[in-house]
Amino acid sequence: MAQPPLLFQEGNTLASTVLHDSSAQEFLLLVFFVVKMRPKYQLKENNAVTRRVLSSLLILLIPCFAFGQAAPAKPQPKGEDIVRQWFERWNKLDGSEEATNRLLELYRPDAFHQIGPNEKQLGEVRFEGQEKIRKMIDDFAKANKAITFRIQAVTANEKAIEMIHVAEGPWGGPSVAVQYAGAYTSRKDNRRWMYPGAAFFQIQDGKIRGARFYMARDEMMEVFAR
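Structure (tokenized):
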């Protein structure tokens, strides 16, 4: 059972601290009674000893006060909030280094980002580490504009909400899954494309440790301006 805090007072001076070591508490009580109960006719030599004891007590209390004033640890952002930030920052890509860096801040240094097959490769494409992820981001942003990726909402009973699925992963952080709709315009020919997909994020220590994106290529369609 936790020990109650020591609280003692002499005159107008109040000292209060919490010490979890029983021997330290006994020492403080002993000092208190020595100071409180000493006779008025005590010799100067004994007063000097008392001052030395009180000095030792002050040294003992300083770490306790410093510990009590320590700033609390900053709470980690929720996994779903990190995923929302990813979509927000992805949509702001414009080919600039600043926009790329803002998105890259969400990844751990050893993170991976995996995408499905494309016109250049039949199998899955996996980017390991921030440098390769940076190149993937730069290539997409420089080839496309008007990027609009949205977490898909589900409507039922006259309500529409974003569906974000969260589970605890074995790496010590959440796994977050979403369905999304992606749209972008090619800078080369100014044609706009849209497709549905699914994304799976692994979050660790408030950062993305891994992301897998799957797109339904069979459902990809061109969007024509009206």
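Residues 1-21, 40-44, 64-68 have pLDDT under 50 and may be disordered. The two ends are 73 Å apart (CA to CA).
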